[in-house]
Amino acid sequence: MAARSAALKIDWTKVSSSLGLRGQTAASLQAFKKRNDDARRKVQVLSETPQTVDFSHYRKVLKNQAIVDEIENHFKNFKPASYDVGRQLKAIDAFEAQAVQNAEETKGKIEAELVNLQKTLENIETARPFEDLTVVRITGAIWAKKEWIADCVYRTRLRPPSPRSTKKTASLVSKGKWMPPGYKERFGDLSAV
């Protein structure tokens, strides 16, 4: 009885929305809900039908008493057939295994996404303040690590920016220009938008 009352209290819309179910898991849950509702309706209809048969009424109405006696005999000797529910239990177990597997896959994807988000959050928290991101400071920080640059394959091509180019870059950036004049004409527009 407690299981029946618990089953009646399930709010299916809250289950799917609060768990954030999507795809095959949500479809399987909806199919299960439909089967549950159909079974509940059938039980309700069958419980409302009368369970006893009044054979004395039929004896009064019908002239052929032998038929009523024969039907009453069959009714008293009737034994409901017992079904092997193993197949249904196997189907339920397979459904449960599939649901658990889908849940584990979803859990793995969510954990991987959380790790990526945590790394991104750490990068954001440890980033330099926006006020410190000037052209002079960035170029100075790059050239302060000359030992690392010396190990670079292209170390012979790299040289510190000239004061003129640093001033020109700072001037362009302060005006909101992010590309030098003539760049698009020479190399083309590579923007995806």
UniProtKB/TrEMBL annotation:
<dbReference type="GO" id="GO:0005743">
    <property type="term" value="C:mitochondrial inner membrane"/>
</dbReference>
<keyword id="KW-0138">CF(0)</keyword>
<keyword id="KW-0496">Mitochondrion</keyword>
<keyword id="KW-0375">Hydrogen ion transport</keyword>
<keyword id="KW-0406">Ion transport</keyword>
<keyword id="KW-0813">Transport</keyword>
<keyword id="KW-0999">Mitochondrion inner membrane</keyword>
<protein>
    <recommendedName>
        <fullName>ATP synthase subunit d, mitochondrial</fullName>
    </recommendedName>
</protein>
<dbReference type="GO" id="GO:0015078">
    <property type="term" value="F:proton transmembrane transporter activity"/>
</dbReference>
<dbReference type="InterPro" id="IPR036228">
    <property type="entry name" value="ATP_synth_F0_dsu_sf_mt"/>
</dbReference>
<dbReference type="Pfam" id="PF05873">
    <property type="entry name" value="Mt_ATP-synt_D"/>
</dbReference>
<feature type="coiled-coil region">
    <location>
        <begin position="100"/>
        <end position="127"/>
    </location>
</feature>
<dbReference type="GO" id="GO:0045259">
    <property type="term" value="C:proton-transporting ATP synthase complex"/>
</dbReference>
<comment type="function">
    <text>Mitochondrial membrane ATP synthase (F(1)F(0) ATP synthase or Complex V) produces ATP from ADP in the presence of a proton gradient across the membrane which is generated by electron transport complexes of the respiratory chain. F-type ATPases consist of two structural domains, F(1) - containing the extramembraneous catalytic core, and F(0) - containing the membrane proton channel, linked together by a central stalk and a peripheral stalk. During catalysis, ATP synthesis in the catalytic domain of F(1) is coupled via a rotary mechanism of the central stalk subunits to proton translocation.</text>
</comment>
<keyword id="KW-0175">Coiled coil</keyword>
<keyword id="KW-0066">ATP synthesis</keyword>
<keyword id="KW-0472">Membrane</keyword>
<dbReference type="InterPro" id="IPR008689">
    <property type="entry name" value="ATP_synth_F0_dsu_mt"/>
</dbReference>
<dbReference type="GO" id="GO:0015986">
    <property type="term" value="P:proton motive force-driven ATP synthesis"/>
</dbReference>
<comment type="similarity">
    <text>Belongs to the ATPase d subunit family.</text>
</comment>
